[in-house]
Write a structure and sequence with these properties.
Rossmann fold; elongated; 6-stranded mixed β-sheet; alpha/beta; 339 residues; 48% helix
């Protein structure tokens, strides 16, 4: 019995070493399998991240490296358990590296730690993680992005008035920093702007954000059919669109100053119609691109920066046709995804 057990243990150890050897052989020969795991897969923002990852994959292939980007993430942006399972599955499969946009800055810590302990490095993109178990963090400086949103809203309100903010969801580090940046800049620089509400959450989908927006706006209706507030800020694509729909359905779109975050065809159309007065824009294609590039550079033994800021800009009705802004408003993700 002991002899049989020893044989089983020996075989198991041999299988592990063979797997490690194959992985090492692949990487030393320039063959890399990079898992890219977004928070969700439906919004334009994530499609643009995907496009950037594919762009990097193609560029690396053109340079002679064998790189495969594997794209997989949860459908909804509040499905933490699903994202954890995706990470764990890629660890089991023994990919070369993981590029991850964590849904929750705490809930994903153990999964990332497990990956690193199994010799799989992790690059974090978009949203932070309360951990140091990552190779590089590639993201917008979200606090600055939120401050830019506050500055834009204050500008079009001439520095005075009543405003509300619809938050995204708890645990999302990127949007929490945007929300705090927005509140901080108003408190520091605009004493005549009053934040009437800043504690409501839109949730992970445009539908939940729409319902939350309706509930938030209902008690703010004025007797003349307008609103008792002057401005609104939303911190991501789904909350921005959910609020837009609620304003449109109530006949209030364009009657209140409105600044959002991120972009889509419908948000661009709303800006053209003067229903949105500012959009803080990230560069998601570049974020996905740099996430993959930094991972492969690390795997090849190159030094990579621990923090890479991909920047942000503010689109307005006045500058939306500027080539740089237009490229961020309407990222050409379809070119890379063959859509």
């Amino acid at each position: 019995m002991k002899k049989a057990l020893a044989v089983v243990v020996f075989v198991a150890i041999a299988v592990v070493f063979i797997a490690i050897g194959c992985k090492w052989k692949e990487e030393t020969e320039g063959k890399y399998r990079i898992a890219v795991i977004p928070k969700g897969t439906t919004h334009v923002f994530w499609k643009s991240i995907h496009a950037g990852a594919v762009k990097a994959e193609q560029e690396l292939k053109d340079s002679g490296l064998e790189v495969e980007v594997i794209w997989k993430g949860p459908l909804k942006e509040d499905d933490r358990e699903s994202q954890i399972r995706v990470v764990e599955d890629f660890v089991t499969r023994g990919v070369s590296g993981i590029v991850l946009a964590p849904l929750d800055d705490v809930a994903l810590r153990m999964s990332v730690k497990d990956a690193v302990n199994n010799g799989i490095p992790v690059v974090i993109i978009d949203s932070g993680l309360k951990s140091e178990d990552y190779t590089s963090f590639v993201s917008t400086d979200n606090e600055i992005g939120g401050r830019k949103g506050g500055e834009r809203l204050a500008e079009i309100l001439d520095g005075k008035g009543k405003v509300i903010m619809l938050r995204y969801q708890e645990g999302s580090a990127s949007t929490m920093k945007r929300e705090q940046g927005f509140l901080d800049v108003l408190k520091e620089k605009y004493p005549e702007i009053e934040v009437v509400s800043a504690n409501q959450y839109g949730g992970a989908t445009t539908e939940s954000a729409y319902i939350a927006s309706e509930n938030l706006l209902a008690p703010l209706r004025a007797s003349d059919g307008g609103l008792t507030i002057d401005g609104i800020f939303c911190p991501n694509e789904s909350t921005t669109f959910g609020m837009l729909r609620a304003l449109q359905d109530s006949g209030l779109a364009g009657k209140v100053k409105y600044v959002g975050f991120d972009s889509s065809d419908r948000l661009v159309q709303a800006m053209e119609n003067d229903e949105i007065h500012g959009l803080v824009l990230q560069d998601p294609i570049n974020m996905g691109y740099l996430g993959v590039k930094m991972m492969v550079a690390h795997l090849r033994g190159e030094q990579v920066d621990k923090r890479i800021d991909t920047g942000s800009s503010v689109a307005t009705p006045e500058n939306m046709d500027d080539p740089k802004i237009k490229n961020l408003l309407e990222p050409d993700f379809k070119k890379w995804l063959n859509e």
